[in-house]
Amino acid sequence: MNINKAFAIRTSNLLVKYKMSKYRLEKLSGMSHSAMIHIFNEDYNDIKLSTVIRFARAFKMTVPEFLNDPIFENLDIEI
């Protein structure tokens, strides 16, 4: 699994947990619609730290809280 897939899965799980739409996440994070499409279609090879920070803030989390998920503990994540 690559880092973008892990990021997309984590974000999707948080959207469900917080009952938030992708559109709402887009607005709260300040990400463009096209960037959101690329993230969820896993078109990027990696994710920028600024994107992680934006998403964490949108979910009212710290970056460590956002990254505190078993999906990121997988040692087979491609970087």
Written account of the structure:
- With 79 residues, this protein is an all-alpha fold.
- It has one domain: 434 Repressor (Amino-terminal Domain) (Orthogonal Bundle), CATH 1.10.260.40.
- It has five helices and no strands.
- The radius of gyration is 12 Å and the shape is globular.
- The model has no long low-confidence stretch (mean pLDDT 92).
Summarize the structure.
The protein has about 80 residues and is mostly helical. It has helices spanning about 5-15, 20-30, 35-40, 50-60, 65.
Looking at this protein, list some descriptive labels.
434 Repressor (Amino-terminal Domain), single chain, 79 residues
Helix and strand arrangement:
Blueprint: H1 3-17, H2 22-29, H3 33-40, H4 49-58, H5 63-67
Largest sheet: none
What is the strand content? under 5%
How many separate domains make up the residues?
1
CATH architecture: Orthogonal Bundle
Task: Give the helix proportion (percent range).
Answer: 55-70%
The separation of the N and C termini measures: 9 Å
Query: Got a strand count?
Result: 0
Number of helices: 5
Tell me the name of the CATH class.
Mainly Alpha
Spatial extent as radius of gyration: 12 Å
The CATH fourth-level homologous superfamily: lambda repressor-like DNA-binding domains
Tell me, briefly, the overall form.
Answer: globular
Q: What is the N-to-C succession of helices and strands?
A: HHHHH
Q: Any low-confidence stretches, pLDDT <50, length ≥5?
A: none
CATH topology: 434 Repressor (Amino-terminal Domain)
Decide which structural class fits the backbone. Answer: mainly alpha
**Assembly type of the shown chains?**
single chain
Average pLDDT figure:
92
